[in-house]
Amino acid sequence: MFDLRPVGYVLGLLVMTLGVTMLIPLGADVMAGNDHWGAFAESAAITGITGLFLTLACANGLTPTLSIQQTFFLTTGVWLILPIFGALPFMLGQPDARLVDAFFEAMSGFTTTGATVLPNLDSLPRGLNLWRGLMQWFGGIGIIVVAMVFLPELRVGGMQIFRSEGFDTLGKILPRAGEIASRISVIYLVLTIACGITYNALGMEPFDALMHALTTLSTGGFSSYNASFGAFQGPLEYVGALFMLLASLPFVRYIQLVAGTARPILLDSQIRAYVATILIITLAFVTYRLAVNGTGFEQSLREGLFNVISIISGTGYASTDYQTWGAVAVPAFFFIGLIGGCAGSTSCSIKVFRYQLLFAAISTQVRRLYAPHGIFEPRFEGRPVAEEVISSVMAFFVLFFVTLGITAVLLGLTGLDVITSVSGAAAALGNIGPGLGDLIGPSGNYASPQIGDTAKWILSAAMLIGRLELMAVLVLFTATFWRA
Question: Cα 45 from chain centroid?
Answer without folding.
Answer: 28
